TrEMBL record:
Belongs to the pterin-4-alpha-carbinolamine dehydratase family. Its EC number is 4.2.1.96. Pfam families: Pterin_4a. One of its GO terms (molecular function) is 4-alpha-hydroxytetrahydrobiopterin dehydratase activity. InterPro entries: PCD_sf (IPR036428), Pterin_deHydtase (IPR001533). This is 4a-hydroxytetrahydrobiopterin dehydratase. GO terms for biological process: tetrahydrobiopterin biosynthetic process. Keywords: Lyase. It comes from Mucilaginibacter yixingensis. PANTHER family: PTERIN-4-ALPHA-CARBINOLAMINE DEHYDRATASE (PTHR12599). It catalyses: (4aS,6R)-4a-hydroxy-L-erythro-5,6,7,8-tetrahydrobiopterin = (6R)-L-erythro-6,7-dihydrobiopterin + H2O. It is an enzyme of class 4 (lyase).
Length: 76
């Protein structure tokens, strides 16, 4: 579930192992590139954390971020 905090949408995703986490990141990277909207994220072993906000709008959450979050949820 995405939460909004500090002008960012945030969610942590837990996978069975590093390979599954990395495969998810590759799918998200493809979506981000097509949308020209790139997340801030981290990966430690099986955990991927993602933060979304729109830099061009002053680092706030916009509809662009909400759409990206929905697209990310679809690749789970």
């Amino acid at each position: 579930m995405w939460t909004e905090e500090n002008n960012k949408l945030y969610q942590a995703f837990i996978f069975k192992d590093f390979d599954a986490a990395f495969a998810f990141m590759m799918r998200v990277a493809s979506i981000a590139q097509k949308a020209n909207h790139h997340p801030t994220w981290t990966n430690t072993y099986n955990k991927v954390e993602i933060w979304l906000n729109t830099h061009d709008a002053g680092d706030i959450v916009t509809d662009k971020d909400r759409e990206m979050a929905k697209a990310i949820d679809c690749v789970l």
